Amino acid sequence: MLLRGPPALASGRCPAISRRQAALHPAVRRPVVRAAAAASATDVGFGLSIADALALVDRTRALKESLPGLKADAVGVQRLPGDVGERVALVAGRDIRDKEAVMTIPEKLAITRVDAEAHDLVGALAAECSELTALTLWLVAERHRGAASQHAALLGTLPESTLTPLLWSDKELDELLTGSPVGAEARVRREALQKQWADLEPKLRADTAKFPPAAFSEQAFMRAFSVVCGHAAFLPAAGCFALLPLASLLGRTGNGNGCDLDFDPELNAVVVTTTRPYRAGSELLLNDGRPNGELVLATGSVQESNTADYLDWPASLVQADKYYMLKAQVLESMGFGPKENFPVYADRMPIQLLAYLRLARVADPGLMAKISFEKDIELSQMNEYEILQILMGDCRERLAVYPKSYEEDVKIAQQRDLNPRERIAVKLRLAERKILNATMDAVRRRLAPIRGIPTKTGAMVDPNSDFKEIFDTIESIPMAPIRALEGFMSWARGDQDPDWGKKPGQGQNRGPPRK
Q1: How far apart are CA 85 and CA 25, in angstroms?
Q2: Do both 348 and 223 map to the same domain?
Q3: N or C, fewer C-beta in 10 Å, the chain?
Q4: Which stretches of the chain drop beneath a pLDDT of 70?
Q5: Residue partners of 462: CB distance under 8 A and separation at least 6
Q6: Residue ranges of region Disordered (predicted)?
Q7: pLDDT score, position 37
Q8: What is the pTM of this model?
Q9: How far apart are CA 203 and CA 208, in angstroms?
């Protein structure tokens, strides 16, 4: 599978979803000729004009009303303001209770790999491909049929492509995602997708009458793949991905307050269930615990307040460490390797990353027994100082590769003339640097109580001791005259002479007696 996320079964089949008949219900086959033509003329997923948004609302409502067995009485379709232009969303049509099923989609309406392999045009090719590629071939083939497709109503509600960086040019990646780890990852995944197309192209070109190059092109394949990744839902109970009418239009949230979606074998249907109450008019979203970097690659979207957002942070043992093998064994016993990546969030310290770094940098093997990947336990002040400095340096290095400052990106995000890709890129950069800045602040707070730096003897010496002595001397200068006067008065009173004011022969220093 190209994009990281819920894993598909190795076979790519859905054991809980049976192979359906080639002919669907007549109501599903009803073509929406004008809707399909309108959908092919524009990217309906983002940056919509008012006219395009209204047309998409009409197509979505027509799809909802035309599907036999679909239960979605509590779901409404509504225009909402988007980052650029307008967008169309599914909302609560009335007040909805917690744990209420708001949408039930019969399995015969779900498009899975089974349908792709049974397709009369691309079935043989789909059977040789991965699950997502098989669904992509299905989508390309149905788009080729246009208004004649029995799924024209569904196609009319899907965008031509998404905003995923997989479709951006190298120039756009350089200009918009320099500094972001998503830029490099997008190139790697795009190259893998292009290789997939290179394997398919000779087979398609062997029969141009069946697979016209204009319809079965690399661009069409890439754009369809972005739609499949962005709109197909994974069904854990069935173990497969599915393109679902209406439900495929639900947005995503990583905050855990959206809806759950899965296949119900008893109902033989896909069910969307709320996890909290909804007021009428509130947007319905699917729970999706992926970070923004994965979301933008898979769906072409970024959540501004995604509590599931994190950055991958690499860590490794020092190969020159004389205790390398011992530490590697300790890590292996805990399920880790000599090189690991850890998630770093904006609102919490990465306990496992800290534990890994503590072990990697500890010099006393006797302290290894204190290592805990579940609790935040310091090994020694010297060790803690070292790993915090490493984290601080990593944060600074990662922030330095962004060409613009955080404040400059904030101003860019406020501009209204950004195109959709510029908008999504600046939102991603700000989200990434929010995590980096929060991590730096947390490291500073941990460093503040450590009043020392490591020395060769292993002791911690205050790094500001010399400066402290200088400032203490400077601060004492204005008080020097006062202290001199007080010293003179003390001498005049005899405070410093133990014999002052005593009778002869009573002092402590009486001297030898006279003869």
Answers
A1: 36
A2: no
A3: C
A4: 1-46, 451-485, 487-515
A5: 451, 452, 453, 468
A6: 493-515
A7: 40
A8: 0.79
A9: 10
Do residues 336 and 226 share a domain? Answer: no
Statement to judge: residues 293 and 316 lie in one domain: no
What does the pLDDT read at residue 32? 37
Helices and strands (H, E) in the chain, number of each type: 18, 13
Q: What is the CATH number of the domain that holds 335?
A: 3.90.1420.10
**Domain with 57 in it: what CATH number?**
3.90.1410.10
Closest to 253 measured CA to CA, from 276, 271, 237, 270: 276
- On whether residue 14 sits in a domain, the answer given is no
- Residue 458 in any domain: the answer is no
- Overall residue count recorded for the chain in this entry: 515
- Domain residues for 101? 26-298
Helices (H), 338-380: 351-361
pLDDT at 68: 86
Q: 463 is written with which tokens?
A: 């790094």
Tokens at 256, concatenated: 């855990």
| Residues 271 and 371 placed together within one structural domain of the fold | no
- What is the per-residue pLDDT for 38? 41
d(CA 134, CA 447): 53
**Domain check: are 233 and 275 in the same one?**
yes
Helices (H), 299-380: 324-333, 351-361
Instruction: Please state the φ and ψ torsions of residue 281, each to the nearest 5 degrees.
Output: 95, -10
Q: Is residue 399 part of a domain?
A: yes
First and final C-alpha spacing in the chain: 116
pLDDT tens track for 360-402:
999 998 899 899 999 999 999 999 999 999 999 999 999 999 9
